[in-house]
Specification:
It is built from 6 helices and 7 strands. It has helices spanning 31-49, 57-81, 93-100, 104-111, 115-128, 173-195, and strands at residues 5-7, 26-28, 86-88, 135-137, 157-158, 161-163, 170-172.
Length: 197
C-alpha cells in the first residue's frame, strides 16, 4: 500500500508540510487509510452476519504500518532539507473531538486518529536520522490566518480551501496553516535565541 503525496511548486525558505516544517509543499491525506478502515469494517460486519470471528487486529496493524511509512517519508524530506519537523501541539484533541461528534460513524473515525502515533514514531525516527525531535507549536488561529499578509478572518476559510479576504491569496487550508506553523516555530526559535535559552 502506498501513500499519495500531492506536490505543488517548491516555496523557497518557507517551511511547509501539512503540519510539518520542510521546504517542499506536500499534503498527505488520510484517504487510503479511511478507505481501508471502511473496507475492513464491512468485512467484519459480513463475518459477524455469517457467525464467523472477525479479524480485529488486522486494521490496527495496517494503520500503524501506514503511520511508519508516512513517518519515513517525513524523515526523508526533513533529512534532504536539513529541516526541523514542526507539529501542532494537540493535547486533548481526541477527547474534545469525540465529545463534539454527533454520529456514531464520526466518533468511530475520530477514536482511531493516528496523530499521536505518528508524533511518537517521528520522535524516535528523527534522532536516528541525525535530526532534532519534532517541535510542537500552538495551532491557534493558523488555519484562519493568511500565510502571505497574515490577515486573520474566519471568512477566509471555506472547508478545505483557503482564500484570504484581504489579499486574495488562495491555497489548501492545511498547507496555509502549515506555513503559519513553520513561521510560528521560527518566531519561537528567534525569541529563545534572543533570551539566551
Amino acid at each position: 500500500m502506498s501513500l499519495k503525496a500531492h506536490e505543488s511548486d517548491p516555496v523557497p525558505k518557507t517551511p511547509v508540510y501539512c503540519r510539518t516544517a520542510v521546504q517542499e509543499r506536500r499534503l498527505w491525506e488520510g484517504g487510503p487509510l479511511r478507505e481501508l478502515r471502511e473496507q475492513l469494517a464491512e468485512e467484519r460486519r459480513d463475518a459477524q452476519r455469517r457467525g464467523r470471528r472477525p479479524n480485529g487486529r488486522k486494521e490496527s496493524e495496517i494503520a500503524i504500518h501506514l503511520a511508519h511509512l508516512l513517518a519515513n517519508e517525513i524523515v526523508a524530506l526533513a533529512k534532504r532539507y536539513e529541516a526541523q519537523v514542526v507539529l501542532e501541539q494537540l493535547k486533548g484533541l481526541r477527547s474534545r473531538a469525540l465529545s463534539r461528534a454527533r454520529s456514531r460513524r464520526r466518533r468511530d473515525r475520530l477514536s482511531k486518529m493516528m496523530y499521536q502515533k505518528l508524533a511518537s514514531i517521528l520522535s524516535y525516527k528523527l534522532p536516528l536520522a541525525g535530526l532534532w525531535r519534532p517541535w510542537h507549536v500552538s495551532p491557534a488561529w493558523t488555519s484562519l490566518t493568511c500565510a502571505v499578509c497574515r490577515h486573520r478572518d474566519k471568512a477566509s476559510r471555506h472547508g478545505r480551501e483557503f482564500q484570504c479576504v484581504a489579499c486574495g491569496h488562495q491555497d489548501d487550508a492545511d498547507l496555509n496553516a502549515a506555513i503559519n506553523l513553520g513561521r510560528r516555530w521560527f518566531e519561537e526559535k528567534a525569541k529563545r535565541e534572543k533570551a539566551g535559552v
